[in-house]
Amino acid sequence: MAGRFEIRVSGRLSDRARAAFPGLAVEEVPAETVLRGWSSDEDDVHGVLERIQSLGLELVSLRQVPEPDQD
């Protein structure tokens, strides 16, 4: 999964948990936290998923998002 991605986890992240995701945009929405970033290959995304699991976070969704139009 190379390209932009969005991962949603249940709840809000503590400062410690946020620090585990350097380079990712973190946005809190009602009942979830959204992590957004870019990966060069599938291993990058797997690394983020492993950190989510090691922190005991509940994964809600993972999706690839389209690149914005570059006009």
Descriptive report:
The protein has 71 residues and is an alpha+beta fold. The chain has helices at 15-19, 42-54, and strands spanning 3-10, 25-29, 32-39, 59-64. It has a single domain, classed as YebC, transcriptional regulation domain (Alpha-Beta Plaits, 2-Layer Sandwich), CATH 3.30.70.980. A 4-stranded antiparallel β-sheet has the order 2-3-1-4, covered by helices on one side. A hairpin with a 2-residue loop joins strand 2 (25-29) and strand 3 (32-39).
Helix/strand layout:
Elements: E1 3-10, H1 15-19, E2 25-29, E3 32-39, H2 42-54, E4 59-64
Order of helices and strands: EHEEHE
CATH top-level class: Alpha Beta
Quick check: average pLDDT? 92
The span between the termini is 24 Å
Q: What is the strand tally?
A: 4
How many domain modules? Answer: 1
Helix proportion: 25-40%
Report the C-alpha radius of gyration, rounded. Answer: 12 Å
Q: For the largest sheet, list the strands in their spatial order.
A: 2-3-1-4
Approximate shape: globular
Q: Determine the CATH superfamily.
A: YebC, transcriptional regulation domain
> Largest sheet at a glance?
4 strands, antiparallel
Low-confidence stretches: none
Which range does the strand content fall in?
35-45%
User: How many helices does DSSP assign?
Assistant: 2
The CATH topology is Alpha-Beta Plaits
Q: Please state the structural category.
A: alpha+beta
